[in-house]
Amino acid sequence: MYLTEKGLFWSYSRLENKPIPNQDWITRKIDRWMEEDPDEHKRFLKSRNEHFDAVDLARQDTDLIATTGLGSKGQRHYRISDQVSETPSGDHAVYQANDTFIELRTPFDEKRGLITMVMLSVLFAPVVIGIPDLFNNTIPSLIKGINTGSGNPLGFSGYFTFLFSALLTISWIWIVLYYGQPIIRLETFVQRHILVRFNRQNRTVYVHRPAYAGGIVALPWDKVIVGIKPDDSEASGMGVPLALGWGAEHSPNDVTNLLIVGRLARSNSEISNLWEYIRRYMESDPAQPNPLPTPKRVGKFPWPWRSVMAALSLVWPIFRIRALYWMIPLLLLISPAVLLFAAAHWISLWLCWEPRWPSAIREACNDSLIDTLKPWLIDIGTWAMGAATVYAVVQYLSA
Prior knowledge:
By secondary structure, the protein is of the alpha+beta class. The protein has twelve helices and eight strands.
């Protein structure tokens, strides 16, 4: 789920010579590889210099863009004072909206599940078969010196077979969990969502991410850079998210921050409408009620049907693009794969926890007691639902 965010944060940190929190073995291996490969190191330095040239140009253009909306090369930039749409909308993007802040989702919630599916496949045999056999057969046989399955005394070959089986099962699980931890934690055993809060009272944007993907940061609204092209064709926005950026000089961690907000859009106008919704909210009078229409909100509780909808969202262009209608019958053939992906998506949600804002941010956003307790209630309900599902499956298989 957080592969994109981790990749962005890693690349910007490396380009700007900043340390990366919670460095894992993948990062260290890439660093050693670049140090041992002079040609790759030269290519990296060249790309870094090109990046800094672009950054320096953007810094020089900051004042010009703020006053005219145009860069030094004549490129159009939309400022927070520029209206880009007549129909602002936060539909399918907003978790929560009130008079103090709006909290938005990110578009990668639908993408999760693939890594979980691969990891479950790798661990299926040792966990589902190996561990039960370890406790029901291998350990009792070694303690008693008798094969509990056949009742025959164990000889040298029998002891060797049972010890090798136990060592193989434990080693396999340990290797996968130890060396695969950075990959596993991209979707599981990590916070369930990335949250983005826009607080119009103090004109601050709060981002809640895992530490390896940038962590929790507070960014100034007035320094945001928005990447939209409202004059492009509708089709150009299909599958494209709203991108917001802050330069390293305006970020508390001194690293360029790029946020992907909302869902992957169905059209170019959806991107413009979402940005206009955010822009008008943040530019409205904090002393007045929220003037925008109530959006169709996104729920945080991971109901199983939402995982099915997330899996189906991967094939939604087939239903929107007439030239792809001929592929609709093929969905029947891939429906088992869609259901498997949906199951892995739901399992990844079950094995995560709801993110909780630090107390300072909760106070700045005037969170109520319900807002504070809600993540705990969601976690309790999710884990209880998951435990009940596991129990039902075990009972069914043992019947």
